[in-house]
Amino acid sequence: MASVGRGTVLDPGAPLSIAYLTYRGKPHVGGQGVYTRHLTKALVDLGHSVEVLGGPPYPDLDERVALTELPSLETFNDHFPGRMPGWWELDDRYDVLELLQFMKGTFPEPLAFSARAAHALVDRADEFDLVHDNQCLGYGIRRIEKRIPTIVTLHHPITKDRELEMADAATPWKRLSVGRWYAFVKMQSRVAARMPRIVVVSQNSIDDIHTDMGVSRDRMRLVPVGVDPELFRPLHGVEPIPGRLITTASADVALKGLSFLVEAMAKLRTERDVTLTIIGSPKPSRSMRLIDELGLGPHIEFVSGVPDERIVELYAEAELAVVPSLYEGFSLPAIEAMCTATPLVATDGGALPEVTGADGETVLQCPAGDADALAVAIGRGLDDPELRARIGEAGRRRVLDRWTWTRCAELTVEQYREVLSMPSNVDKLRRNGRL
Fold first, then answer.
1. Nearest of 420, 39, 31 to residue 196 by alpha carbon
2. What pLDDT, on a 0 to 100 scale, did the predictor assign at position 27?
3. Domains of the chain (ranges plus CATH)?
């Protein structure tokens, strides 16, 4: 066994072996999937070894990143959301655990995935220096942390999702259903409060996680996410389509504010020809009902399952990108749009002002949850080509100065090394034969 110090994982320059956990890592399901793909690639670029243990829908990864699939019952999949599994599908106790959680009306994946991940890793402690959990925070993560040094990324507190969904619930029965669905949040708060280090993507999220989840500030560190400036770049020779807007709605939930953008679009169409491209899949929701009620179907296009290169083209075809969210822990769509020099309209929800900058300089900003104000901000951008050009260029400069995946990975590795140097984790490394 090597001695502690130079030539071991505690050496500041030594490559690390990382087990990365993501229960929903496909990019189309949201920012966590984008974070998974690009952070793991950047970690490998820095010389580290990464194995992703993922649940369905499985992540899209760089070819150098290994994937170990941890199958689930997929009770909430794209084709049959909320389906009841058959008894013949129950292969082990983890399937039974997932089914029981599902039958109680709560979202079952965080608890069930964490249990499967703990089972997969318990006998592999000698293979990894550290485990990085991407916002699962099930009880199984605590079991892993007792055996292997562990760090967690918490993008934002899911308490905000619950709060907004409860406010949006129209009936007592719906509020009861939402409350049961988000029962897993209590588990996540308990686990997060006991983890030695939480990586958080914005100062706003640090404040909210401390307030809502009881995580002490001294356990949290700010590590912003990134963007690939070589991929998300201005496309010269592609002219924007007059009146074209673009937004991302990988998950059409209250928090994302899509319904307010639909209402704003209806107001705008009374005086001008406005069309909207939505990066995401149409699913039964309040927003879809509004689109039908307002007769906007012919003017809205949903695009999903396309490569990043096509998304960059869609940004180039739009006069404005819009982030109508009621709350964001960071907002990858915002910085991706800004990086392409597409002028951005965004609300002041959550961390968005921290990310997008000052109104009129790098963004056209408006209050969250206000369709009239959103329509005014969009109209202001559509009416002023010089303003659009100035905000687009300044927005790209802001992103290039602050956020790249390489920098995100470098800061993340700094946190890995701090966690590994904790006395309790040095003891774990010794027991696991990693020192």
1. 420
2. 63
3. 17-226+404-431 (3.40.50.2000), 244-402 (3.40.50.2000)
